[in-house]
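stage 2 :: seqdesign
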């Protein structure tokens, strides 16, 4: 045995630090937690997913029902389906329609084509009315009017807004006057309000041509080209509306004589004659 060492044949051992005993308060179970209810958390976790799925399905159902109700009510006041028909155009139709508006003398067949009692889309029939050209022509007219005012140092947002609102007001008054006249004359026609808006909006094409001629060639160019466009829109409206307003006479192929038919002829002439007057009224003050 070495001094200060362990006895021979025995390895030195390490002492374990004293740990908590079984009777220590740290290892003693809490009597209050023995009777704690742990089923609430499990139940909440179990029910959370079905409840959220049910809420999502119910919300989706409400959204679809609301969309259906809104779509039904909108279609009642704003015929969205009919509006899609009037915008069913393509580049070929737009080019041919503009040519028809500016040179109607060369056109022979003015009848609108039908397929199973339904008029074909405008892109398949140049005689069908559309809203694309009137809407784009109206916007272009406002832009050209602003350009004309700018070249004369008279441009202002208020004046341009007044020009747009007056043009729109004249269009509304014109359509309402035609509808009232058709009602008073008791004309049985398939002309709808949208058709009248389309036919009345074609005049903006001639107004744009007159204004551009005025900007490029002065008053002489303005009066020359505007006069040409006034004649062409008059011919276009006569040949188009006579098949709508004088539908009974057109169906029989002869001119039906009588006071009622004369009123229809006068109405057709009045609507066609109104177009050049409005064209001049909305453009003459823009050219100096």
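stage 2 :: out
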């Amino acid at each position: 045995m070495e001094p200060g060492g362990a006895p021979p044949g025995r390895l030195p051992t390490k002492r374990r630090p004293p740990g908590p005993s079984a009777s220590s308060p740290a290892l003693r179970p809490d009597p209050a937690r023995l009777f704690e209810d742990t089923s609430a958390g499990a139940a909440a976790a179990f029910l959370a997913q079905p409840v959220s799925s049910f809420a999502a399905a119910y919300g989706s159902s409400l959204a679809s029902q609301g969309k259906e109700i809104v779509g039904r009510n909108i279609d009642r006041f704003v015929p969205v389906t009919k509006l899609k028909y009037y915008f069913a155009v393509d580049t070929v139709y737009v080019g041919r329609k503009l040519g028809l508006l500016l040179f109607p003398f060369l056109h022979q067949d003015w009848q609108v084509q039908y397929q199973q009692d339904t008029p074909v889309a405008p892109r398949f029939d140049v005689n069908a009315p559309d809203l694309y050209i009137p809407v784009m022509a109206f916007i272009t007219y406002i832009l050209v009017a602003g350009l004309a005012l700018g070249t004369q140092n008279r441009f202002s947002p208020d004046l341009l807004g007044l020009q747009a609102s007056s043009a729109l007001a004249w269009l509304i008054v014109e359509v309402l006057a035609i509808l009232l006249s058709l009602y008073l004359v008791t004309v049985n026609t398939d002309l709808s309000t949208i058709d009248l808006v389309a036919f009345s909006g074609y005049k903006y094409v001639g107004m744009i041509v007159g204004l551009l001629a005025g900007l490029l060639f002065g008053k002489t160019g303005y009066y020359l080209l505007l006069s040409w466009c006034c004649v062409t829109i008059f011919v276009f409206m006569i040949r188009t509306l006579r098949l709508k307003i004088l539908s009974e006479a057109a169906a029989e192929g002869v001119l039906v004589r009588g006071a009622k038919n004369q009123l229809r002829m006068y109405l057709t002439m009045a609507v066609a004659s109104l177009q050049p007057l409005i064209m001049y009224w909305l453009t003459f003050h823009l050219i100096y």
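stage 3 :: structure notes
- The two ends are 132 Å apart (CA to CA).
- The first helix runs from residue 31 to 34.
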